[in-house]
Amino acid sequence: MTVPETVDRLLLTAAVVVIVVAGALLLARIRLGPSMLDRAIALDVGAALIIAGLGAKSAFARDPFYFPIMLVLAFLGFTGSVGIARFIAVRDRPARRRGGTGPAAKGHGRDGTEGEAR
Question: H/E/C letters for each residue in 76-111?
């Protein structure tokens, strides 16, 4: 093995070690929480770690077979994160107060027209 190949293998091995350590810390974050948002972010980071692991495997093997799989996982991770964020945003939305001074309390609809109070 030449020197560049040795350095390449050493750096890839270090990258895999970092990915494994990050995965262990990620599992601890998912288990400990404390909130649902922390767990959702940890799952998103988990998708990124899986992609990084596949990239390292692809680099070790010098085979581009995993690139389309990595692309699909990145798309699924993104859409999953957006879905979880929308779910948490709807769940954590504060309830409307009745008897306030806003448009909903005065019987105005969202577009400012007169209507029945909700």
Answer: HHHHHHHHHHHHHHHHCCCCCCCCCCCCCCCCECCC
Q: Phi and psi of 47, rounded to 5°?
A: -65, -40
| pTM score of the predicted model | 0.69
Q: What is the pLDDT of residues 52-76, one digit of tens each?
A: 999 999 999 999 999 999 999 999 9
Residue type, 42: A
Which residues, 6+ apart, have CB-to-CB distance to 55 below 8 Å? 66, 70
Whether the link from the prior residue into 103 is cis, omega within 30° of 0, is no
CB within 8 Å of 2: residues ≥ 6 apart? none
As given in the structure block, the two tokens for residue 98 are: 């009745």
